[in-house]
Amino acid sequence: MRKWKELFSCLLIVALIATSLTGCKSSSSEKDTKAPVSNTTPAVIGEESLVPSEATEVIFWHSISGDKEAVLNEIVDAYNTGPGAANNISVKPIFQGSYDEFSTKLAASLQTGDIENLPDLVQLSSKGIFDVKDSKYIYPVQSLLDKDPEGINPETFNAASAAYCTYNGDLLGVPFSTSSIMMYYNRDHFKDAGLDPDAPPTTIAEVAKAVEKLTIKEGDKIVRFGLGTKLRFFILGTWIPSIGNDSAMFNNDNGRTGTPTEITMTKDGSLEKTLSEWSAVLDTGGVEYTDASPNESFISEYYSMMFASTSSMASLVNQAKDIGMDLGVAELPRVDENGSSATGIGGSALYMFHRNNENSILGTWDFIKYLATPEASAKWFMGTGYYPMNTDAFKMEEVTNLMKENPQFNIIPTIIDHSDGYTNYTEPWIPSFTDTDTLIQNEIIKFSDGSQDLNTTLDNIHKETMIRLEDYISANN
Amino acid sequence: MDRNKFEPALIVNKKARPKKSLIKILKPYIFLAPITFFVIVFSYYPFFKTIIFSLFKVNVAGELTKFVGIKNYIDMFKRPDFVNSILVSLKFTVMFVPLAVIIPLLLALIANKPKFLTKFYQTCFALPMAVSMSATCLIFEQLLHRRVGLLNYLLERSGFYDNMTAIDWLKNPKWALPALVIILIWTSIGFDFMLLLAAVRNVPSELLEAASLEGAGYWRKVSTVVLPIISPTLFFVICTQMIKGLTMAGPVMILTKGGPLGSTSTMIYYVYTTGFRSTNYTLGSTASVIAFLITFVFLLFNFIYEKRGVNYD
Amino acid sequence: MNSKPDHLRLYKKFKYYFSSVLSILLGIVIIFPILYAIFAAFKDNVNFDSYPPRILPETFTNLENFKYILTETLIPRYMLNSLIIALVASSVRLLFSTMASYAFAFFEFKGKNFLFFFIVGTMMIPSEALLISNYLTVSKLGLLNTYAGVLCVFFVSATQVFMFRQSFRTISGSLREASYIDGCGDLQFYAQICIPVSKPVITALGLSTFVNVWNTYMWPLLVTDKAEMRTVQVGITMLSNADSAAKGNVFAGIVIIFIPMLILFAISQRNMVYGISSGAVKG
Fold it and tell me: Which of A162, A255, A380, B219 could form a disulfide with A157 if both were Cys (CB 3.0 to 4.6 A apart)?
């Protein structure tokens, strides 16, 4: 009995120590968040010189993988041996795994003020930007744009992409790897099914009709799906605002003017309309609605159509050539004939961190300027399909040649054209982005397989999303 | 030995014992110091910190903002995704533990009798232990692929898919969790096989012979002689497999990411997504404590059963 | 008179070979995923898309994937990291556990029982529940992306302390008294008698720790983001994520990682069985 008493009293002591330590730590981290310990105040950077005063290494974290990584490395090499060498700057790109994995660690590093382990330049998608955008370590690109007006002309940015990374009116990052969702289809399948390959569906209702014709069944077994996709923020980001009222999915401009406190698409009828139209496609029984990466199955001709990113353009064009597929491209179909012509922006952008070292920031800025040149932008666009940061790239000779040889690429400037002026079509910046995206996807899937009706789906989405928003607000105010 | 009594008469016989010097008194503590330090810093401190966090609202900077006490726990159980994660972990454990104990046991019994090329298949049975969990996940991901995976190919050829669309095992809400069960079983048979083999080999042969003489068949012998004698090892295996099942999260991170439709979102994976990915330390800490309590309760049941079922000779 | 035993003998022989063959087949089924990985490592990246899927590669002489892994990726560096971490973790863990168990087996001191329960009580705390807190601790100590940061959580094992205490207790107390009288200090006794006597248990537990630490995924994933510091588990998964089309490379990586574990396994198999049976799980 005595031994348990001893044990208990010692555990109590440990617990008290733990509490006091936690208390100490919170007060010290509070200190951190209040007074930045830096030897160069951000306002001063770029006043004297726009290039670093000594040899600088720029650490660049990204999630670009596969073929696209090779293109990125080529661009970095070209910089390191060219303008970088001239200014004694060397960029070191590091692949950090999926957006999910490393944005988690990044947030934790920022929180503990672990400057040593932060990168200078980081590629972040909507999944990771929320926790980072208010951090004192993030260095808005706007600051350097203002200091160095010759460096980059913001007019050359694709306006919608620029809106994607604008926060509270200032350009927070540069739209390096932004993309849109679009539709790819197999023209041979269209011909076989009696559809006109030059007239792909332009509304969801037309998609339903096409899916009906394109799906091949053997009894109960589906041998070929008409369409493969998965509804999620990337796609809803286009459909929701396009329904006439131009409203975003969440309030506070999808997070661009403050933390959203409410999900609006469930109550203002936009999601309801979208899903009602989508029912027509579901009713055909020929849509595979759970596949968020349909590229592989599309290439193996398991799907006749798919919704995928513009950033897959280069790799799809090459693969289609390899297997002799006649690849068709089109803009994402509208919700209905009254929908606007714009397509939303998703993907990711590049953001800078302030690591108490003016040279690092200047080095990073120099690299960003290189990425914003028409040449580098063109190379990136041609090798992937991501929007070129500098739209002048479209005027370059190599690009026009590429687009002549591979006419599929032409859809991309078309999408930009049609989206001109619509800047509200973005993925939302919300806390728990992945969780919310996943729950919305799951609810829509449950709606799609018939296990719950539309109203329940909307209610669930609203309730669950609000819980997550409230979690954040109640703990962070 | 009574150190307090001073017996002058015995001093001549006893080797002169010097008074306990400071070093002597400190010695045991010196031996224990390193491990105790790490135990406190990396086991108890984070544990209590987590418990304390779970009683507060914690912001994204890791600071306590508001004391709410038990409310966090009550709210947790109102969240369908958390309750789902508990159910998933339980479902997984129920599927996993029986197979994870019986399969190595059968393998041990098979490998016990020396036969032709025993060494070969004994090594085969234990070999999965040498393959790391990540590698296993990647290999099975390929084998379970919808189109080019061997499993589906064999099923297609055997006519299993005649009237239905091929199953995408890891992306199917019904089959993703069983698929993970198979994967985790495969990784763990190696080590437990060796444990049980050693235990089975230690069964004294006289007992087995005596049972044979009394006319007991093979399975009779196993149930009446072998099982009781290896029960301590069996108990150990059941306990460890139960903990492994309840805390499974690695394969989920690598293969299914909690999907499809949350069917593989286990308790610990939930801790990862809330506490880490969404930096919601409030939820993460509360979930951690609940996960610990559930595991603890299971272990407790095990130990209660141990008193009755396991015999230590 | 002879036919009956003959029959029986033939039947017994048949049973013997038949069950042997079944067992061998079972063995092959169990190691099939490993064989598949080995064959796949020789395949061209393109072959993975083919339907119907093939098991055997076209040729066993295609070493492109292995060359790629060894020269173009950091897998060798990842293996070095994992090796260092697993080696140091298992050695230090053994050191700490044996030292602690020595104190518990041979000393009498205040708080002995309390400390024993204190340390062994950690058995009940699942390490996964501590991930977040430990991550924050390591981060605040500035140990992210260091070997120390990854290692520090592996140094304690309640089960080892428990088992070594049992093992040391079998060393008779009077032996220690005698050697003490002979002038043998504690450290000497520890190093020259206790450790050698417990060698089987040490080998078994050391190897089991080594394998477990080599296999850990979540903790190293959280603590390292610099490419050079990653362990092999994290590295190989990232390789698979990085290029979902280049599967041949991933399998070559899997095989390369597998080789040292296979060697370790071969060396230690006998020791493990002996060590486990002699000390580890007797009640």
Answer: A162
Superfamily of domain C69-280 in CATH is MetI-like (1.10.3720.10)
Q: Which ranges of B146-265 would DSSP assign to H, the alpha helix?
A: 150-157, 176-201, 205-213, 218-221, 227-246, 250-251
Name the C residues in 99-138 with CB < 8 Å from any A CB. Answer: 111, 113-114, 117-118, 135-136
The rounded distance, in Å, linking the Cα atoms of B231 and B310 is 5
Helix (H, G, I), strand (E, B) or coil at B89: helix
CATH assignment of B73-309, given 3.10.450.50, 3.40.1440.10, 1.10.3720.10, 3.40.50.2300? 1.10.3720.10
For residue B276, the distance in angstroms to the closest alpha carbon of chain C comes to 7
Interatomic CA distance for residues A176 and A178, integer angstroms:
6
pTM: 0.82
Cβ neighbours around B210 below 10 Å, total: 13
Quote the pLDDT of residue C245. Answer: 67
Nearest to C70 by CA among C196, C268, C259, C211: C259
Surface-to-core class of residue B236, CB atoms within 10 Å of its CB (0-12 exposed, 13-18 middle, 19+ buried): buried
Residue type, B261: L
Query: Do residues A250 and A462 touch, judged by C-beta distance below 8 A?
Result: no
Nearest to A112 among C136, C238, C241 (CB): C136
pLDDT tens for each residue of C82-121:
999 999 999 999 999 988 888 888 888 888 888 888 888 8
CB neighbours of C76 closer than 8 A, spacing ≥ 6? C70
In this prediction, residue C201 carries a pLDDT of: 80
β-bridge mates for residue B67, sequence order: B56
For the beta carbon of residue B44, count every other beta carbon within 10 angstroms. 22
Q: What share of chain C is helix, strand, coil (3-state, %, to 5)?
A: 80, 0, 20
Instruction: Report the CATH architecture of A49-179+346-395.
Output: 3-Layer(aba) Sandwich (3.40)
